[in-house]
Design brief:
The chain is an alpha+beta fold. It has 5 helices and 5 strands. The protein has one domain: Histidine kinase-like ATPase, C-terminal domain (Heat Shock Protein 90, 2-Layer Sandwich). The protein starts with 7 loop residues before the first helix and ends with a strand.
């Protein structure tokens, strides 16, 4: 069974000063953000942005695993965010990558306030394996509510550096 994610604060000691609401609009050499429309083709865009960003940071070895995880997170945001209570119109989904030694944090923010719900993976079904894949390929994952509504679902990867 997929375990419930631990909170960001429990997973990352520095998170008490890390605020997704501020990072989503920040700019710097260690942060990349990309707004995405809530449409299926945003998944490919998110994979491409993730691979290109990691390559530019000298971390191409993380590209495939990170792109797979980002695909799952963006797919969930596209699938559930527009239908969620409180979602207004076509609010964007935002992909964020944050490089911090010795890791990379990937986060997908969406306008939904609904918590991600891990399920027992059904390997025969087309659905239900997303968070299992996120948990399998990342070091840790979790989610946080955003200051102005919505949430950011994140996954942490080790760079080995």
């Amino acid at each position: 069974m997929v375990d419930e994610p631990i909170s960001t604060a429990d997973c990352l000691q520095f998170n008490r000063r890390l605020r997704f609401s501020e990072l989503l609009y920040g700019h710097g050499s260690d942060t990349a953000t990309c707004p995405l429309p809530p449409k299926a083709d945003s998944v490919k865009t998110a994979r491409d942005v993730t691979r290109n960003t990691l390559r530019s940071w000298g971390l191409p070895e993380l590209g495939d695993d990170a792109a797979l995880v980002v695909s799952e997170l963006v797919t969930n945001a596209v699938r559930y965010a527009p239908c969620s209570p409180g979602a207004v119109g076509e609010l964007p989904i935002t992909l964020m990558l944050l490089r911090m030694s010795p890791g990379v944090l990937l986060a997908v923010a969406d306008p939904s306030n609904q918590a991600p719900t891990p399920k027992e993976p059904d390997f025969v079904s087309e659905n239900g394996r997303g968070l299992y894949i996120v948990e399998t390929y990342s070091r840790r994952w979790g989610w946080d509510r955003l200051d102005n509504g919505g949430k950011a679902v994140w996954a942490l990867f080790d760079t080995g550096r």
